[in-house]
Amino acid sequence: PTKNKELLFKDLVRYEDGCLYWVKPSKDHLIGVRAGALQGDGYRSVQYRGTNGKEHRIVWILHNGEIPAGLVVDHINRDKLDNRIENLRLLTNRENASNWQKRDLPTGVYLAGSGRYRVHTKANGEQHYVGTYDTIQQAVDARAAFLDAVGAAAY
What we know:
By secondary structure, the protein is an alpha+beta fold. 22% of the residues lie in helices and 30% in strands. The chain has helices at residues 55-64, 93-101, 136-150; strands at 13-16, 19-22, 37-38, 44-48, 51-54, 71-75, 88-92, 109-111, 117-123, 126-133. The chain has a 3-stranded antiparallel beta sheet with strand order 3-4-5. A 3-stranded antiparallel beta sheet has the order 8-9-10, with helices on one face. Strands 1-2 form a two-stranded antiparallel sheet. The longest helix is centred in the last third of the chain and has 15 residues, at 136-150. The chain is globular and about 40 Å long. The mean pLDDT is 85.
């Protein structure tokens, strides 16, 4: 048996600009529909017949094959939703943890591949995508307005 459960998805999806689309139909989805959904941990996950896989891991496997033991797929720009292959790399767990501690953007704001600023944040125990903005200040303001609108504390 394989160590990378995401290999199951290799023949089920196609990659296009950081996104996965179904190439085989099932009772749960149609061909051409974007695969997966945003999860509470801020990552996009794809499910098929009881197997879940993180979109960024599936993208890596489609391009490079299995992920070696002891390594994880890292988002270079620290945006968990930017799954373009050029934004992904393999790191050890220690390197990955160190990378996330070097954060230089405000909480909930991530640099998207387009050069714009994407906002996703937790509110009331759930992860939410707020939007993508031209400036850091617009992103910070949008996050604050979202949290005010849902009555959640910033965290």
